[in-house]
Write a structure and sequence with these properties.
homodimer; DNA-binding; 7 helices; mainly alpha
DNA sequence: CGGGACATGTAACGCGTTACATGATTAA
DNA sequence: TTAATCATGTAACGCGTTACATGTCCCG
């Protein structure tokens, strides 16, 4: 087991398998889209890729569930080695993460284009984040964990319906909601500023004469 | 000019060139490290790569500044075409950005390892974000724009020492500070929760008998 | 009868990261 | 003398993204 064999997404999948028990690639994708949405995104193509890599490393085991008239479900479990690797990763503290927000770039360079333009972008972002906040408030993170969880949980796992009481999940939900609220508040303030500039297009503080 | 010829970092560089006028790759790197730190990071290797790509597209022009006993500075300018491309990008509103925070993953999976471990990670993050906040409060974003800006601004550009009054830069600084404060507050609350769990290791709400 | 959910894949492409490389100047 | 600043590169590697692919079931 080399360190370069694994990356955050590897451990993300591994963690899901340990915490919410045997899962198919499709299940994992749903968990990324809902439960992990505030911290990590993943395309299904990458999840399937990663699962095969982890199988080769003996970090997960696959069991085929046959189905009629649908592709077979391939259900994965974390092995002992996988769990050891996960614990090793958990023991290393990560560096500060990199925010990569295109909107912030467009705000910084807002003066280069028109203010109408910038205002439009801000409104679009407000709409999207407002929807996210609503989703989080409606407990979207728990959607894939509800009673309706795919193949109906076969073995009684310790989290079944009571998952909403997992304190760590609650912590993440708190973060997601607090973050979206803060982000939205900033967006509204930025929009207000831009709209004021639109009303008084040129505010000549310094008696600007021709250059 | 195809859409696939450019990415956020391309426009980040382009925007810097338009806003803070002729710059070398080294200058651009400093601007990414300080001014753009809250929204986009970039390695110098990628900046040099991108500059050559943009030169091939005729989005930037290069002028060599000869120096004794140091490598020549290659100073770049945005062309008309480059500015047009930048404006076109500014007019498209971006989707929601993806947070990719390894720490949040480790918090979610915190119960898999020891609480000591998780507390340690949280404290490390607190330290790092506390430093960031301090830097932002000390106007770190402006560092490369101060009077000391490299080759001393040759042509009197409209931003020279007064950059601290650019309203868009102020907006970004506000965002950075608000974000760090929010993040830190959450980290402290998370740590408090974990420390309480350490004191009362097993809180048997449900008279847990053997499975 | 079209669209969504279910279910799993392959392929292309490059941004972003990390490491390696060079070499002078200046300050602690 | 050790380290930081100045200054610009090359190379390897793969995660993350986007697009393409296939086929059934079920709901309105």
């Amino acid at each position: 087991m080399k360190a370069s064999d694994a990356y955050p997404i590897t451990y993300g999948i591994l963690g899901l398998l340990v915490k919410w028990g045997p899962l198919s690639g499709y299940d994992i994708k749903r968990l990324f889209d809902y439960t992990l949405a505030p911290m990590w995104g993943a395309a299904h193509s990458q999840i399937y890729k990663e699962l095969r890599r982890m199988e080769a490393l003996d970090w997960v085991e696959m069991e085929r569930e046959e189905q009629e008239s649908r592709p077979d479900r391939k259900v994965y479990c974390a092995t002992e080695q996988g769990q050891a690797a996960l614990r090793a990763w958990l023991s290393r503290s990560p560096g500060v993460f990199q925010l990569r927000d295109e909107l912030l770039l467009k705000v910084l360079f807002g003066s280069i284009a028109s203010l109408d333009n910038l205002a439009h972008n801000l409104r679009a972002s407000i709409g999207m984040h407002e929807m996210r906040l609503l989703a989080y408030r409606q407990n979207a993170l728990l959607l894939p964990l509800q009673a309706s969880f795919p193949h109906g949980n076969k073995r009684p796992n310790p989290y079944e319906a009571g998952s909403r009481e997992d304190p760590y999940l609650n912590l993440i939900a708190d973060f997601a909601i607090t973050f979206e609220k803060m982000y939205l508040q900033w967006l509204y303030e930025a929009l207000k500023m831009v709209e004021q500039s639109q009303e008084q297009p040129i505010e000549n503080k310094s008696e600007a004469s021709e250059s």
